Amino acid sequence: MGYKVAVVGATGMVGQEMLKVLEERNFPVDEIRPLASARSKGKKVLFKGAEVEVEELTADAFDGLDFALFSAGAGVSREFSPIAAQKGVVVIDNSSAFRMDPEVPLVVPEVNPEDAKKHKGIIANPNCSTIQMVVVLKPLADRYGIRRVVVSTYQSVSGWGKEAVDQLWNELEFIMDKCPRASAEQLKDEIRSAGLRQVLAHPIAFNVLPHIDVFADENYTKEEWKMINETKKIMHLPDILVTPTCVRVPVLKAHSEAVNVELKSDFGSIEEVRRLLSSSPGITVLDDVEKTVYPLALDVAGLDDVFIGRVRRDLTLPYGLNMWIVADNLRKGAALNAVQIAELLIS
Ligand code: 3JN
User: Fold this and answer.
1) pTM
2) Which element (helix H / strand E) includes 265?
């Protein structure tokens, strides 16, 4: 006995990962229904070794389903999630469309699994940068209390989808072909005058962009506002202070974060904090600086856990911690978290 499951946005990077995670984790699937825009209709996706034809996303496409995992952008979610929910399908939505809706639970299974059961047809999957941070903040908040978090992210291009991954590769291929080993000053002019397709605001090869999503209130980006607001909602801590700077780096997969946490009470030792974190669900501690061991995007890509290292006391605060948090943004940051939510509902 299994479930009928749709993946909306099945040809996108997160949609593909959702199919893979459902398969790998042996989620009880009776029928898989890959849905996408008319443009992708008839394309094939792979599920459990078989080719499955992509169907066009229409209202009727949700008939008879149990679950629909959405990752096709907030606009598609706003239009089709309520239709699916109306038909009795449980929607797990990876976009920002409903995350801050008080009627919609926003769930990270390691943090607030109890919220999932309160759904009225739609459950929201948080932003990738928020997910990997709250998995680590949760045990610290429970044990010591948290007053304030200062976070800088180092986000991979896959967070923005295939087109941003293509932008990075196109720039790198252009450089290797036309101006290998060029100086930074040369690159600046060469890349900008090459006329390559650019979906990010600036060239990303050999560059670092303090700009993710669009700019909003107080000159913070939407990505930064998502981290602030979603953290409060998931952790049920409306007063937790979060101040982020979100940055795009020329990395393919996995987001890294430098996180400074001001606790409300002291911890005994850094060893105690490492023990607490390594015994918490979904976390692997990789922290042995003598051996140059700390989590790296290249090592974490393709893995499920949230990895932390560089755990150390903030010497400028009475009770402060610094740490480095890395997770695969397409897995724990998106597809895996969504499938884990579905698993909570059937358990
Ligand atoms: O760029 C990243 O690393 C994460 C981007 C996430 C994103 C991109 C476009 C639209 C989102 C998101 O998940 O919050 C959205 C959105 O749904 O608003």
Assistant:
1) 0.98
2) none
Any ligand 1 atom below 6 A from CB of 107? no
Closest CA to 286 of 258, 311, 313: 311
For residue 187, what is the enclosing H or E element? helix 184-193
Instruction: Round to whole Å and give the CA distance between 324 and 256.
Output: 7
Active site residue 202: no
**Residue-wise pLDDT tens digits, 92-115:** 999 999 999 999 999 999 999 999
- What's the confidence (pLDDT) of residue 17? 98
Q: What is the CATH number of domain 3-126+334-346?
A: 3.40.50.720
| Calpha distance 335→165 (Å, rounded) | 18
CA atoms of 287 and 318, how far apart (whole Å): 23
Active-site pick, 179, 202, 236, 255 = 255
Question: CA nearest 246: which of 132, 75, 105, 102?
Answer: 132
290 Cα: distance to centroid of ligand 1 (angstroms): 37
- Domain ranges for the chain, please list them: 3-126+334-346, 130-158+212-329, 161-206
Is it the case that residue 1 has pLDDT exceeding 90?
A: no
Instruction: Kindly state the tokens that stand for 337.
Output: 């978290």
Q: Please tell me the distance from the alpha carbon of residue 278 to that of residue 217, in angstroms, as a whole number.
A: 37
Cα-Cα end-to-end distance for the chain:
14
- Cα 266 to Cα 275: distance, rounded to the nearest angstrom: 15
Positions of E strands within 199-344: 241-245, 255-263, 283-285, 306-313, 320-327
Q: Ligand 1: which of 71, 79, 95 to mutate, judged by most atoms within 8 Å of the beta carbon?
A: 95
User: Regarding the domain with residue range 130-158+212-329, which homologous superfamily does it belong to in the CATH classification?
Assistant: Dihydrodipicolinate Reductase; domain 2 (3.30.360.10)
Helix (H), strand (E) at residue 103: none
The torsion defined by the Cα of 35, 40, 44 and 47, in degrees rounded to 10, comes to -30
**C-alpha span between 214 and 79 (Å, rounded):** 22
What is the percent of the chain where pLDDT is above 90? 99
Tokens describing residue 105: 């639970």
Tokens of 192: 């900008």
Distance 315 CA to ligand 1 centre (A): 34
Distance CA 343, CA 145 (A): 29
